[in-house]
Design a protein that fits this description.
By secondary structure, the protein is an alpha+beta fold. 37% of the residues lie in helices and 17% in strands. The chain has two domains: 8-105, OB fold (Dihydrolipoamide Acetyltransferase, E2P) (Beta Barrel); 113-292, Hypothetical protein af1432 (Orthogonal Bundle). The protein has ten helices and eight strands.
């Protein structure tokens, strides 16, 4: 069973809800009187919304609605302290696991993946350097890797945290980095290949399950930056030194290892080439712009004004919702 068409991101107060959702979070709490109540967070590919409290008199409405289950919810979109929520008007119906495809309810990028792959493949074909083309092909010429790459988010809860998020992020970084390299007269091909490879470790660092995205043990213990260089080492073992020298391999590892820019942000080394520096800032541009774009759509940061009442954690500062259009 596929999820319904309810668009959480665009839902308005008063909208009728009668759709299937994935239970992303379940919290069981107690009132001051000691009476229990339940708070659920429901979601689908378009976003997430909390439910209004399910009070002790209606606790059976949430029976079986555990994290990772798909439920049919009936109610309406309401608002409480400026935040949207789903106010249930009937008990939740828990759907059998065998009847649903849980991954269809997880966050998913809003654009089709085919044009992104077309861009990557066209860009691969335009690389003038045979060693760089050989390097990128050992990953992106592998159909099994492409399937994994497309399913992987770019983060578990931050920028591009969606199925297809890593693919979208990498195309953004490669496009930004290539433009910057051309302006600065740097090696555009090298920067593009660095952009395509910089986050390959996330394929091993992150997992996708019915309850969402999480760090794998390898992701927690090693991290995606080092995992990426390990994957590069493994794949390049099949490439003869005559096609890719030891010095060239070293520079490719440096691009991956330095792309976070500084030690405190997870890079074992800082950028030591122009191309590594440009890659770092292209990565920052894609990540931070996505953080700000998504934070602007999240009502909980705003009251009745244009400026957010608090600092969204992903941005770290207050943000402004433009009241006008430039169209």
């Amino acid at each position: 069973m596929a999820p319904g068409t309810f668009d959480i991101a665009r839902a308005l107060v008063g909208d009728r809800v009668q759709h299937e959702f994935l239970v992303l979070e379940r919290e069981e709490k107690k009132q001051a009187s000691g009476d229990p109540f339940v708070l659920l967070t429901l979601g689908n590919a378009s976003g997430r919304l909390p439910t209004a409290p399910i009070w002790s008199s209606q606790m059976d409405w949430a029976a079986g609605a555990e994290r990772g289950k798909v439920v049919q919810a009936i109610g309406e979109v309401a608002v409480f302290h400026g935040k949207r929520q789903i106010r249930l008007t009937a008990p939740l119906r828990v759907l059998p696991d065998a009847a649903v495809r849980h991954e269809l309810f997880l966050p998913r990028i809003a654009v089709a993946t085919e044009p992104l792959w077309d861009w990557i493949d066209r860009t691969r074909g335009e690389l003038k350097s045979p060693p760089l083309r050989r390097t990128v092909d050992v990953f992106f010429g592998d159909d099994a890797f492409r399937v994994e790459f497309e399913r992987t988010p770019a983060s578990v809860a931050g920028h591009h945290a969606a199925i297809g998020g890593l693919l979208l992020h990498v195309t953004e970084v490669a496009s930004i980095a290539r433009s910057a390299a051309r302006v600065m007269k740097a090696n555009a091909d090298l920067v593009v290949v660095g952009a395509l490879l910089h986050d390959i470790g996330k394929v091993r660092a992150y997992s996708t399950s019915p309850t969402g995205f999480a760090h794998t043990p390898a992701g927690s213990l090693i991290g995606h930056v080092v995992l990426g260089t390990m994957m590069l080492q493994e794949r390049l073992a099949s490439v003869p030194m005559a096609e890719l020298s030891a010095s060239q391999r070293l520079e490719l590892h440096h691009l991956i290892l330095s792309h976070h820019g500084s030690l405190e942000f997870g890079s074992p080394v800082q950028p030591m080439t122009v191309e590594a520096e440009l890659l770092h800032w292209a990565d920052e541009t894609s990540a931070k712009a996505n953080d700000m774009e998504e934070s602007l759509t999240e009502d909980e940061h705003f009251g009745d004004g244009e400026v957010s009442e608090r600092r969204p954690w992903r941005v770290g500062r207050r943000i402004w919702r433009r009241p006008h259009s430039w169209d």
